């Protein structure tokens, strides 16, 4: 049994010493990362490779390159989230693929839940408007209109791994969750403790709305002006999904028309926004540089998840983070 590290320059962060030592012992891991160029140039050296561990920076291989250079490969363990860029070719030639999307979902859900709680209290615009003693009254007047976190509607767009986690994290609060996801059954929504609804109703009824839809061609531009214009007074739109799902010109339009509405944007399209984008200057935009996902010490969780998936795979146990071709149709 032989395994290799393949990926970008963050391998050591994702697979820390403890995880690497485990994989060296249990998976026959060669601990020094290799490159795609080396694999293509010396295919004979990698012909017996059975397992590949990677993360951000995973290169794309053609089916021909996989079968020629990695003929013994059984599985790819990807210590990060989306596998759309490389997985299909591996799956097509019978190599199983596992992703740490579940690990990366945790910090995004934690971040989102925190933003929702703050949004319902009016934190963002109260902070922006409280710039001096003279503006305290205006900030307080805005805050007094906010519902807080009791008996309030929150909308979740997309009930994938992250959306489900956010719903779960909101359970301790007296919050009514509405969810939009065409792939979610009414029964599953009820199990989550959420009310399944249309996008139009979600935008109409909810105080705070959070986007978690998968980044797919059919979701591009799905959040547009007709939805934004339905938002309640002082409502908040949070996006930690993907910027391309939002028609940003429409979002900017509603933010200018209704300055009581707030957009909390961790993602944009393009990312970062163009130099002349109004997202930089509008008072009711909170812009962060894509910080919701795994960062700092959190990234080691992804390597830990992949080491555990390898252990289960080796022992023929159920692996909950395996990716299939069918899943690629709807997952981020």
Q: What name does the CATH topology of the largest domain carry?
A: Rossmann fold
Q: Give the termini separation.
A: 32 Å
Helix content: 25-40%
Poorly predicted ranges (pLDDT <50, ≥5 residues)? none
Identify the CATH homologous superfamily of the largest domain: NAD(P)-binding Rossmann-like Domain
Which whole number gives the mean pLDDT?
96
| Class by alpha and beta content | alpha/beta
Strand content: 15-25%
Our count of domains comes out at: 2
Tell me the Rg in angstroms. Answer: 22 Å
CATH-scheme architecture of the largest domain: 3-Layer(aba) Sandwich
Instruction: Write the H/E string, N to C.
Output: EHHEHEHEHEHHHEHEHEHEHEHEEHE
Separate helix tally: 14
Order of strands, widest sheet? 8-7-6-9-10-11-12
DSSP strand tally = 13
Give the oligomer, counting copies of the same chain as homo and different chains as hetero: single chain
The biggest beta sheet reads: 7 strands, parallel
Shape: elongated
CATH class of the largest domain: Alpha Beta
């Amino acid at each position: 049994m032989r395994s290799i590290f393949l990926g970008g320059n963050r391998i050591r962060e994702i697979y820390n010493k403890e995880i690497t030592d485990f994989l060296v012992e249990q998976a026959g891991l060669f601990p020094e990362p290799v490159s795609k160029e080396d694999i293509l140039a010396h295919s004979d050296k990698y012909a017996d490779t059975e397992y590949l561990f990677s993360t951000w920076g995973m290169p794309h291989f053609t089916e021909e390159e996989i079968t020629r250079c990695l003929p013994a490969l059984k599985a790819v363990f990807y210590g990060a989230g989306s596998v759309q860029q490389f997985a299909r070719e591996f799956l097509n030639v019978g190599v199983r693929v596992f992703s740490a999307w579940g690990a990366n979902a945790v910090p995004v859900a934690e971040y989102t839940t925190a933003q929702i709680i703050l949004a319902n209290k009016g934190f963002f615009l109260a902070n922006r408007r409280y710039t001096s003693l003279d503006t305290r009254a205006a900030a307080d007047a805005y805050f007094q209109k906010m519902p807080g976190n009791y008996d309030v509607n929150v909308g979740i767009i997309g009930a994938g791994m992250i959306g489900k986690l956010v719903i779960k994290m909101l359970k301790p609060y007296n919050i009514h969750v509405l969810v939009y996801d065409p792939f979610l059954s009414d029964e599953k929504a009820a199990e989550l403790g959420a009310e399944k609804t249309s996008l139009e109703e979600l935008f109409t009824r909810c105080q705070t709305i959070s986007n978690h839809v998968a980044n797919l061609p059919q979701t591009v531009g799905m959040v547009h002006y007709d939805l934004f214009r339905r938002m309640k007074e002082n409502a908040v739109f949070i996006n930690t999904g993907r910027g391309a799902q939002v028609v940003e010109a429409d979002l900017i339009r509603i933010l200018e028309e209704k300055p009581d509405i707030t957009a909390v944007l961790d993602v944009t399209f393009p990312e970062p926004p163009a130099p002349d984008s109004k997202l930089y200057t509008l008072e009711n935009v909170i812009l962060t540089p894509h910080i919701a996902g795994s960062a700092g010490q959190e990234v080691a969780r992804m390597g830990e998840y992949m080491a555990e998936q390898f252990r289960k795979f080796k022992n023929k146990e159920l692996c909950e983070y395996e990716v299939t071709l069918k899943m690629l149709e709807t997952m981020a």
